[in-house]
Amino acid sequence: MLVKTFGAAVQGIDATIITIEVNVSQGIRFLHVGLPDNAVRESHERIASALDYTGYKLPRKQIVINMAPADIKKEGSAYDLPIAVGIMAADEKINADKLEQYLIMGELSLDGGLRPIKGVLPIAIKAREEGFKGFILPKQNAREAAVVNNLDVIGAENITEVLEFFDGTRELEPTIVNTRDEFFASQSLTDFDFADVKGQENVKRALEVAAAGGHNIIMIGPPGAGKSMLAKRIPTILPPLTLHEALETTKIHSVAGKVDNNTSLISQRPFRSPHHTISDVALVGGGTFPQPGEISLAHNGVLFLDELPEFKRTVLEVMRQPLEDRKISVSRAKFAIDYPASFMLVASMNPCPCGYYNHPDKNCVCSPGVVQKYLNRISGPLLDRIDIHIEITPVPFEKLSEMRQSESSEVVRQRVMKARKIQENRFSEIEGVHCNAQMSSKLQREYANPDKASSELLKNAMQRLNLSARAYDRILKVSRTIADLDESEKIHSEHVAEAINYRNLDREGWAG
Q1: Concatenated DSSP letters of 159-207
Q2: In a shared domain, residues 197 and 336
Q3: Among 72, 121, 193, 362, which residue's CB has the most CB atoms within a 10 Å radius?
Q4: How far apart are CA 11 and CA 126, in angstroms?
Q5: Are residues 353 and 477 in the same domain?
Q6: Mean pLDDT in each 10-residue stretch from start to end of the chain (512 residues)?
Q7: DSSP-derived pairing of the beta strands 62-68 and 14-25
Q8: Same domain, 27 and 149
């Protein structure tokens, strides 16, 4: 008897429906076709053991399994359950009437239990698009898939429950998640707050400007000055995720298998902080079995690179294209995949190998020329994509010990959200531009045009501080954001003056 069950393959962050055709007839062979990889081929042993353990038997007949479309490579162990259900239905051990209404995915253990799988959210979205009534999957993944409405998401603990469900002898209740209530309830839950940071008011202001305009930022300062502490608090001042952003972010984390079993929808902006030994493939994504990299996992959030000069040159250079295009295209001989990568880059570094160049109290012990050599590990094109450079100095004891409460993240976030709203209205008719950092040269001439006094100030700064030519555009973009924070329609000299202070690394002779 020939029956069809339905599964899905995940490519990038989208799913494709896979039809699993199972034919059981007279004979003794077991044939598995349709471009399965080794993990899919090995399903025979897992299915045989799981069925035997739960009181069913793999039929002693010829079993032919075809996975269509046959030109897409089928990877992983998530096809165990739909193949097992198909075999039982084709052998007429269970009723096959309801199979076409459900998409089925799950990995089998040898005792018939179901193990969690990756990528269930894009699969659930695809199942609803294709008109399936429900999605049967391991119980651990049910909450993640249940954010998709108009789809019965049924979590099962073992294969027996699934087989009895299709045979009509057991009822399985769909998992229901009130997505909106849970999402908005968990948005404000955070362990970090700007109020915890003593002093560093100028750095907090720079981070506020960066968050308001979506600007990339680098912090330069000695060890222990608070660079990592400040970076971890940046997501708390960014605008909260919208439902659309949360769904997009969760899809990426679902494909990578990073969604917790108790989580339905990611409600906090991601904060990714890879170690400096990371490879370029781990950063941008790809591999033998394509997976999103750190820049995609930071989508709609923050990518924090601590000790930037310590990263390999090749790793830093692969970020240049994603920083501009806000997506990464992974092209290999057999596939090409696009992953979204719209993130805010936050980097930190010591000013020199010993860490104490320009320190107010400690002397730098680095040899002449070493400081410049250390800074040269970061290429000009990458530095060109970082709008704000800010120096951090250690906090004096008086500031650390004072009891005065600093401004909370929520207060700063309200100002950031107000500035972002101005930018959304400004760029509402321009596709792909949502904040000032994304402005092209044409948009910059239209919206970041300084007045006469500001232009004169900028001209003097370029000459007296020996600012590089590439600093000019960045200063104007940051000035536009500072003006938005002040709710000013025009860019004034005070806005330009503040922006000029955020270009430390562009000053000629900064590193001696």
Answers
A1: HHHHHHHHHTS---PPP---HHHHHHHHTT--S--GGG--S-HHHHHHH
A2: yes
A3: 121
A4: 12
A5: no
A6: 95 93 92 94 95 93 95 92 97 94 97 95 96 96 92 96 95 88 73 82 93 94 88 93 91 91 84 94 86 94 94 91 88 82 94 85 85 86 87 75 78 95 92 87 86 89 78 89 93 92 70 48
A7: antiparallel
A8: yes
